Amino acid sequence: MFDTLFINLHAATMADQKTPYGAIHDAAIAVQDGKIAWIGKKSDLPDAPEKCAKDVIDADHQWVTPGLIDCHTHLVFGGQRADEFARKLQGESYEAILASGGGILSSVRATREASFEDLLKAALERARYAMTQGATTLEIKSGYGLDLESECKILRVIKHLRELLPMTIKATCLAAHVVPPEYQDRRSEYIAWIIKDLLPQIKQEELASAVDVFCEKIAFTLEETEQIFQAAKALDFDIKIHAEQLSSMHGSSLAARYEALSADHLEYMTESDVIAMKASGTVATLLPGAFYFLREKQIPPLDLLRQYQVPIALATDFNPGTSPINSLSTIMNLACVLWRFTPEEALRGVTLHAAQALGLQATHGSLEVGKNADFAFWNIETPAELAYYLHGRACSELIIHGESAQHCS
Ligand code: NIG
Ligand code: FE
Question: Radius of gyration over alpha carbons of the chain, in Å?
Answer without folding.
Answer: 21
